[in-house]
Amino acid sequence: MHTQFHTSTHHHFPPQVIPHPPLRRRTFTLSAHHRPILRRQSCTHVRFRVSNCTQSSSESAVTEVVKTLDEQKTNEQVKRAYPFHEIEPKWQHYWEENKTFRTPDEIDNSRPKFYVLDMFPYPSGAGLHVGHPLGYTATDILARFKRMQGFNVLHPMGWDAFGLPAEQYAIETGTHPKITTLRNITRFTSQLKSIGFSYDWDREISTTEPDYYKWTQWIFLQLLKRGLAYQAEVPVNWCPALGTVLANEEVIDGVSERGGHTVIRKPMRQWMLKITAYADRLLEDLDDLDWPESIKEMQRNWIGRSSGAEMDFVVINGNGQEEEKRITVYTTRPDTIFGATYLVLAPEHPLLSSLLSEAQSKHVEEYRELAFKKSDLERTELQKEKTGVFTGCYAKNPVNGQAVPIWVADYVLGSYGTGAIMAVPAHDTRDFEFAMKYNIPISWVVRPDDGSCGNFERPYSGEGSMINSSCSESGLDINGLPSKEASSRVIQWLEKSGNGKKKVNYKLRDWLFARQRYWGEPIPVIFLDDTGEGVPVSETELPLTLPELDDFTPTGTGEPPLSRAESWVITKDPLSGKPARRETNTMPQWAGSCWYYLRFMDPKNSSALVDKAKEQYWGPVDVYVGGAEHAVLHLLYARFWHKVLYDIGVVSTKEPFKCVINQGIILGEVQYTACKDDEGNLISADSVDELAEYKQERIPEEKVMKSGDLFVLKDNPNIRLIARAHKMSKSRGNVVNPDDVVLEYGADSLRLYEMFMGPLRDSKTWNTSGIEGVHRFLARSWRLVVGSASPTGSYLDGTVAVDEEPSIDQLRSLHRCIDKVTEEIEGTRFNTGISAMMEFINAAYKWGKLPRSIIEAFVLLLSPYAPHMAEELWSRLGHSNSLAYEPFPKADAAYLKESTVVLPVQINGKTRGTIQVEETCTEEEAVRLASLDSKLSKFLDGKSIRKRIYVQGKILNIVIDVPKKAKVAQQ
């Protein structure tokens, strides 16, 4: 690449200006080795004036600029700790040119496989920040390590590129989402390559490519065939401004996460996927997975399997007469049925409108309107105050015939159970708070076995023995029974009397699988004009590609943007020839990421989603690394699709991901703020009760000092500051661009620092100054092997390694390092692996000579972490090929044993000190070491040794001649 210098009337360098007619624009090309200097000056090209318009003068001016840049380059070379700016581009080019990390298409069954995968990134316009490479570096270390251990490694990268952000950008700028997406992918790819990740770029995929989403559509058709995809009228999060349905996680405090637009709940006909049909398998198969227990527990809670009963409450009119309407409730505690003193319906319950009294109708409708603006998460939040409205209507408790009022409250969800609950305020905290607020009767029916409930002032939600639980008219008496036995008795009564049945329920809901967006996979279904019947598109017609559109804005009617593409929408049923219309909803962004790990196994296959033999070899993914924010939805959806594909014979394993690792979050650098009162006076943070009541002012780091565990103002140590690190975001201005770090310290330093910050799974705080420590370690490693730089900043072509046999001490240092680094990589404790290499370098600097065999082994140890430097050192050690497939060193147990002992040394029978010796140390060597010891030498210097008593590994006793006077003094 080259930088172009344009001669024009603009300038960045001090010019010599001579009045002259406008100059003809002339371009000169500057050599690529000057570009790093220009990048550090934050410019990609330089414009300057020349004294006249002749070519020779212009070229002279360019020569001056080049000379200046060359001088600057020489100065920077001298200052650099090691020449990473030359090494890293060199080896990145080598890897790309030689396809070093390409995984062969052919299966090699003679070698074990290792499939390591990063969670699919979304290529945003902002590019990477330093938080992204944390997981990528971890997987890259594992991939490089396993290659060197002889594994056939699959380590791919691709893009989850459909979705709302690109569409919103298209609406705002008029740029087609495809253009934006390709531009973002190019930027992400460039950044990832600059950090030296060993991805097989020949397997790169994007969810937006028709060759890929053809198979996403194919999977949808298989779901449709099996009744696992269907349409239903369901309440959804509708955002009028964005013109689309949003998932619950895309709604925060009643507004859209993107743009902050109002979101309402309204019923719409939508495509659904019947994930609930797989609820039990999704739950049971978690036990066999090597996943974090916290993630498995989150999935268990999300699936929310519970056993209980469904029971019917008959609606009664104002005269107490039964109507034909029945409200079915689900409860996990049928034993508490006698304590049900009211019912609660979800605002979206289908019977609600028909139950309203005239007096309450307006109040209920107003309440429903407010409820529909809240997300499910907001409505069920435990800490929030419970609200509700009485419907004016009653129902009959089936076991005792009592009339109980029917309320509507937003803490009950239409999507869970039946959308209605029986409220037992004596034995449920939420119901108790609601009953106390609205003065509803409370009836205690469970007594704790230990009698701890006292006078029943607080709700008791545990089990016990039943009280106040019998009715002669219904014939049900469970008084005195334990809770579990009482539940069984109630269920028997419900089924015998026709008032209910035993029921297993799940919190898990069917997956809402439609979006009113343009930028997504088209759903391969057409609808006949005359009947409205849905007809699947033939598999032979896939992919059904997106039509070109210029207008991506919401239609305002709820119709998706695709409805504007009339020539695409209007079609015919190929079998009957009847006129039809295409489905204009698109799939959600989740769709493409549900199965991409399979496509990486066989990305170019045009006749199948994945070749059976390749899937059987590569599946399942051995290690899957990504953020905990995907713990439930993405992982649950992917597991669901995988199980469907397993049932139809596409995959051979029940689960897609053998081991899942969630890397921690990298927070932005610590920010310091001071509190101020209304008059602008600084207040110490320890005297502030509520931070929100005070103004806060950002304090620059240079004005801050540490005092114990606290941070205070340098100028006024009595003012304690708030020190806090936040998640990186543009709005906080704390985003660190990895490009800047690579430019200043090199990619290997970035990689090492991200691993050295702390355990992979923990959250860490970024500190740019902290990277200097690992940078110094790399520089020391470089100088140890290559030698020091000349005054001009250049280095010898080779190394200082010598062809000599290593000493026992050197072998011990090396093999302890090998053992520790190997163990820590396998345990993904990368920070302690780096510490072990640092200890080795410290030891190596004390050696007089560096045997080649020792240094080569260390370079191989370093290579998964700092691949650019390792490749360069390997080359300088005389090797012509990449070290990517060199055998990873193995520790020799013989050098790991503790072979030294602490030997007590006695002088004339009195212990005077100790020396450290080899277990096999001879008597002569022990005496020699004792005479060199600073504490012992004063007793031995100039003395005559009369006798030596030596027990190998136990003790050395030296008897010396002592003058008579000295003997008296000793006594």
How would you concisely characterize the structure shown here?
By secondary structure, this protein is of the alpha+beta class. The chain is built from 28 helices and 42 strands.
Task: Please give a structural write-up.
- The chain has 971 residues and is α+β, with helices and mostly antiparallel strands.
- Helices cover 32% and strands 20% of the residues.
- It is built from 28 helices and 42 strands.
- Strands 13, 14, 15, 16, 17, 18 and 23 form a 7-stranded mixed beta sheet that branches.
- Its EC number is 6.1.1.4.
- Residues 119-251 form the Methionyl/Leucyl tRNA synthetase domain.
- One of its GO terms (molecular function) is leucine-tRNA ligase activity.
Mean pLDDT: 87
**pLDDT < 50 stretches:** 1-55
Please give the share of residues in helix: 25-40%
Count of strand segments: 42
Shape: globular
Oligomer: single chain
**Straight-line N-to-C gap:** 86 Å
What's the alpha carbon Rg, rounded to whole Å? 37 Å
Please work out how many helical segments DSSP would assign.
28
Q: Which range does the strand content fall in? A: 15-25%
Secondary structural class: alpha+beta
Query: Largest sheet, if any?
Result: 7 strands, mixed
